[in-house]
Write a structure and sequence with these properties.
With 141 residues, this protein is mainly alpha-helical. Helices cover 36% and strands 9% of the residues. The chain is elongated, with a radius of gyration of 27 Å. The model has no long low-confidence stretch (mean pLDDT 84).
Length: 141
Amino acid sequence: ILHHQPWVFNFGVTNVRAQKEAYEDLKKWWQRLGLPIAKKMGISLATLDKRFFEKSMRGDWEEFATEAQKIKWVDHVIAGIEATCIKKRPTAGSYSWIQYIEEYYGMKDAVDTRTGKVYLPRLSAKDFYYLYDPESRYQVK
């Protein structure tokens, strides 16, 4: 894990005022980003600043995850991720859209046996279905 202090680059013609404004903005960013880290570690921002430069002359501080956990940068270290998704792409003959809706969304009644219409699961806010459905076969339940 790498922590470093925020940087500012001033390009082109800059004057003292522009430099000062950039410096003031940088101090605000450091308060906003560095203070939560310092609090989590149980130290002051000034102490955190000093420790950054003990590790590197540029103020970059790198630690392995286990060490970062010891110094309270992080609460947990993830040792692995288990894939719980579909691992093999099904073929058209072995799997259908209706089976997917039934299994993934738990909709065992995804097809209306009277009309043959396929019920689609309700979507979350800002989601939408983009389907070509000239026969009006699909509908939201």
